[in-house]
Design goal:
This protein is an alpha+beta fold and 725 residues long. Helix content is 42%, strand content 19%. The strands form five sheets. Strands 5, 9, 10, 13, 14, 15, 16, 17, 20, 21 and 22 form an eleven-stranded mixed beta sheet that branches. The protein has a four-stranded antiparallel beta sheet with strand order 1-2-3-4.
Amino acid sequence: MAAANFGKIQIGIYVEIKRSDGRIHQAMVTSLNEDNESVTVEWIENGDTKGKEIDLESIFSLNPDLAPDEDIEPSPETPPPPTPSAKVNKIVKSRRTVASIKNDTPGRDNRVVGSTRARPTQLPEQSSSSQQNARRKSNCVKEVEKLQEKREKRRLQQQELREKRAQDVDATNPNYEIMCMIRDFRGSLDYRPLTTADPIDEHRICVCVRKRPLNKKETLMKDLDVITIPSKDVVMVHEPKQKVDLTRYLENQTFRFDYAFDDTAPNEMVYRFTARPLVETIFERGMATCFAYGQTGSGKTHTMGGDFSGKNQDCSKGIYALAARDVFLMLKKPNYKKLELQVYATFFEIYSGKVFDLLNRKTKLRVLEDGKQQVQVVGLQEREVKCVEDVLKLIEIGNSCRTSGQTSANAHSSRSHAVFQIILRRKGKLHGKFSLIDLAGNERGADTSSADRQTRLEGAEINKSLLALKECIRALGRNKPHTPFRASKLTQVLRDSFIGENSRTCMIATISPGMASCENTLNTLRYANRVKEFGISPSDIPFSQGSGSRSDLSPSYEYDDFSPSITRVKELTVDPSAAGDIRPIIHHAPNQIDDLETQWGVGSSPQRDDLKLLCEQNEEEVSPQLFTFHEAVSQMVEMEEQVVEDHRAVFQESIRWLEDEKALLEMTEEVDYDVDSYATQLEAILEQKIDILTELRDKVKSFRAALQEEEQASKQINPKRPRAL
C-alpha cells in the first residue's frame, strides 16, 4: 500500500527539493508519513542540520523518475477475469488507469478488482457500483490533469530562469559568485528608501551616510557594488570573505544612522535633511557645523562644493552655495530683516597643522588663544558678501588654490581640511557662524609609517584631527565638562562650535560602493557610528514577507550577528577623588623629548594634556607606539613654530645691528673720533649677537634632535594597529 503511494521513494535516498525562496537543492529522505502523504527530508547548511516536511506532489514534480508507474502489473497468482460483457471489462480497465494516475488513491480499489475476479456471480451488482466509481473517478482525473499542467508550467518557468541566468553569467568577472550572492540577498529585502516626503527630525548632532554610484574606472575594472541601503536609516556592507577551504561567502555588516542616502539622491536632497535645518540656528545666535567625511574619491568635495564636469566644478549645486542661498532668503524675513545683519565669508585650509588663508594667496596664519580663552585666527580675512554670486566667486577662488595630491583613488586628492564659514554680524559683533568643512581623505591617516616625512606629518595630523573631531562632537552630545579641542588645529579653530547650548553639528559620511574600497568604507562607517552611537537590531532590516528567515537565503551565505558590527568606544574612567585633574596616564617608552621639556617649557602644555586624553579615549585605534609618535610630532611642530619665530626675530634684530655697525664705521672716518667709545659699542653689539645666535643655535640643535626622535618613533609603529579612521 505504501509502495503505491510513495512510488520509488525510500528512506535514505536523495531527492531534489524546492526552498521557500525558490532555490532547488538535494536533501535526504529520513521518513515517510502515510497519514498526511508527505516525506521528511534533511540537509546540512552552514554546518547545521536542517529539515522540513514536503508533500508528495512537490516531490514528484521535481523528481518525476520517482513517481509511481503508469500501469499496475496484474498479479501472476490471480487468474484472468471472466468476460461476460465488454462493458464490465471497460469499467475494470478504467479502474486500473485511475488508480495508477492518482498517487493518493486508496489500495482498496485493487481489492475490488480481485473480488470481481473471485466471484463472477456478483457481476451485475458490482457493475452498477463500478459505474458510480467511474463517474466519481472522472473528477479525480480532471484534478490530476490540472496538476500535470501546472507541473509542466513550473518546469518551463524553471528552464527559462536557468537559461536567463546562464546568459547573465559573465565568465570574465572573477567575482561573479559574490555578485550572485549579493543579488539574491537584495531580492529578499523590502526597500523603503528616503524620500522628500519623509519628515525632517530635529537633532543636535545629526549623522548621516551618503553612497555614491560606481564611477567609470570601477565599472571598467568590473568592481562590484557591495553597499545596500534598504531603508532611510540603514546601511549594509556585503564584505566578501573566504573560509579555510577557499569557500567564498558574504559577511553582512549592518549600521544605522539618522539618515542614509543611496546613489540616486542628489545634492539638494542631502542638503534638505542635513545642513538646511542648521541655517536657522545661526540666526538664533547659535553656532552650526557641517562636516563631509570619508575616503578620497567617495564624494566629499562633490557634496560640499558641487557637481564636477571633467575638471570644472559647478559650485552652485554644492552645500556651500545652497546654505548661502538659504541664508540670504532668511535675511529677507521680517523678524530677521529688522536685525540689520551683515553676512561675511571666510575660506581657509588646515594642512599639516598649519592654517592658510585661501582668500589671501594662501597666507600662513597663526592660531592663538586670547586672555578670555577665545581662539583667534590672526590675520584671517573676512569678505562681506551681498548675494549668492559673491559666495560662488569666493568658493572658486579658494578651490583653485587648495592643496591636493594624486592618489590611486583620485587624481586630485584633498590633502587638507577646507573650512568655509558664513558669519553673521550685527553692528560689528558676532551674531552666528555656520562652518562647512570638507575634511581630508581619511585613508591618509594610515600613512604614519611612510618613508617621506611630509607624508608622515600629513597622515599624523589628519589622524589626530579626526580623532579629536570625533571626541569633541561626542562631548557636545553628552554635555561633557571638558572638550579636548586643543588636541588638533582643526578642533582648536572650531572651538566655539563645540561649546554652548546653542551649538548644532551635522556629519555627512560619504562612502564608495566598490568592493575594492570595502575596508575604507567599513572604517568610515565605524567612525561615523562612534560619533553618535546607534544601536541596531535584526528588526531594523526590512526583509520582505516571503523571504523567510536569514538562514534560508542561500546555502553558500554566512551572516554574522548584528552586535559585533557595532564596536563601542571604551569610555575614560576617572577616579572620583581626582575629578579636578582629568589627565589619564599613558605609559610610553622614554625618549629625548622628555629631556627637552625643561629647555622648551612645553612639557605640561594644554595641547599635550588633550592629546593624552584623546589617545586614552581611543585605545582601539591608538597603540602605545602610535601615541609616542603623535607626541613626537606635536612636540616637533611646536618646536618648529618657535624656531621659525625666533629666527624671524633674529633677522629683524640683525637689521638693527647692521644700522648700528654702519654708524660705528662712519664714526671711524672722522679725524678725532673716540676710540674707547667705538670699542665699547662694538663689543656690546658682538656680545649681544653671540648671546642671541647661540640661543638660536641651541634651539636648532634641539629641533634637529626632535626631527630624529620623530623619525625613530615612526619606525616603531606597529603596522597592524593603526588604521585609517
